[in-house]
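Lab notebook, page 48
Experiment: co-folding of the full assembly
Goal: obtain a model of how the components sit together before planning crosslinking
Operator: M.T.
Materials (sequences as entered):
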Amino acid sequence: MSRTLSAPVTVAFDYTRSVGPVLGRFLTGLRDGHFIGARLSDGRVVVPPPEFDPVTHQATADFVDLPETGTVTSWTWVSEPVAGQPFDRPFAFALVTLDGATSPILHAVDVTSAAEVSTGMRVRARWAAERTGAITDVVFVPDALGVPTSEVEAAAQPARSLEQLTGIVTPVSLDYTYAASPEESAFFQGLSEGRILGQRCPACEKVYVPPRPACPVDGVPTVEEIELPDVGTVTTFCIVNVPFLGQKITPPYVSAYILLDGADIALQHLILEIPVEEVRMGLRVKAVWKPREEWGTTIENISHFAPTGEPDADFDTYKHHL
Amino acid sequence: MRDVAVVGFAQRQMQDFDGSPTCAELLIPIFAECYEQTGWTKKDVGFWCSGSSDYLAGRSFSFVSAIDAIGVLPPVNESHVEMDAAWALYEAWIKIQTGEVDTALVFGFGKASAGVLRRTLALQLDPYTLTPLWPDTVSIAALQARLGIDAGLWDEAAMAEVVNRSLSDAEKNEYAVRAGGSSVEDLLARPMYADPLRKHDAAPVTDGAAALVLAAGDRAREVRERPAWITGLAHHTDGLHFGTRDLTRSESAARAVAAAGGVDGVDVAELHAPFSHQELILRAELGLDAGVRINPSGGPLAGNPMFTGGAIRIGEAARRIWDGTADKALGHATSGPALQQNLVCVMETTSEGTGN
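Observation: model returned without errors.
Model output:
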């Protein structure tokens, strides 16, 4: 068995990004089904257009319409694609220099084997039927027809938007295998047996729960394991009145710091079975465990804390733990 | 300018660290080694600076948890960069130059194996026109490698020579996660992974942590007979857009080495080239001729923990000064896609006559 517990975790967020005048123009072009590049101060024609000239640092202003055909100037074969790439089966990433541009754009080429792509090969844009104004609105395909650019341009001049795009949403989602430290793992293993485990620092003798890899005061490993009771004192608390996504309890309810007897750091948990307005600093509380068959390696084995009925703790007993 | 030297170095590299993303448990023995090498306690360290990124392993504020390994009561003077710890070294060097502190401990950590590293690194690209395509690091490096091959600047055999020398040297490095040379022919016979790159052309995904100790003047002389005096230190960057860069070059590396005073007399260079062809680019940009020993440690192709792969190069170069095998050594670090950002640290046995 591994010395640590681990579990999959996905961290995801949809970034809403304003795009500004230069990228907005480029992305609007993609939505309309054509490429817009920029002519830089040194004469280079670059796509996507940089917002500022890399030499003069002036805002990009000289825009150039570019055709949807170009030449592969470098390529690689993506033998094991990762999530989010343009294809979920092997494909080519390439640097494609559009006709009339002097610098390449990085994008995907839809071919089914590495033998079908080569430096110098001619490619053409294949536009998505539904376009939003994103770099993913297009991929490149081999230009098997070999139609001269000028004829294609004359044949199909896409409509131009009057309204320029001002913002895009770029979702980011990352998958991890998240491991607890050996000390945190011991804590969660303990919970699966109904025990609350902490560790004592050999230097300052403070008891940390959950235990940490090192005492943050002394920077030494906290090796001595301490089993703590499931009874403690509310040191501070807040009444949650605001609803939020994923909330499991109907507000108002109390989230509190609970200093377990013998511990030097408070645990955060819920206080239930008492009207919210009666929760107070010094309130003595005890863990209410879920039925044993529902236990896992999680703090959620403790449903919440509830008042013990004892007299409140004296302020002096927890004043150093606020 | 104050004379500042690298006087301590400790590292760990592994394929798959099974601990927490904060790596605090990995940093404790590394700091202990730094204390042992210097004879210091944490009270002797005037400034702490770390390099790491939460994106690597999905733990928020991991750099805050990591300082548990220092012990921060009373509070310590501390900072962090979201870059390789080589850039944390740069910040620490500046801090010492200001005169505010005389000593610094620089560290970095990362658990790259927790995610899909080549995918996670797409987040360092332009978020409007590149990240939505999730171009992975290996693909980007492969596009760069082919540009050079097509231009006749290098070939697959030259790349394989870099790999063979690196993995042969790595046999003597206890921290290497990939080691064992064979021959150019054998390497070229292996299958393509991201054509024209084979798996051995890319640094292995590596977990790890490392620390470097800096000291000024007499504080450095107290620690080592031959401190590795920093006589040149500079970092530069190239643009964000691939379209505006010549990917067969690393102009920022050339600017950095020029700003660091050049490579005249350099015996040993530790280059942070996570892909074999990138070493060829760097050798040309830095002006390192055939007489300079490159990556005696085995270099990043033998182990490249994210956020310390560059700092380790500086530590390995400094070690050659300490042990007398070099009088002048160069440590290089890179960050960003396709050698976008580059730092050069030149170290010598003496700080005299450098203007530093």
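Interpretation: The longest helix of chain A spans residues 20-32.
Next step: discuss with group before ordering constructs.
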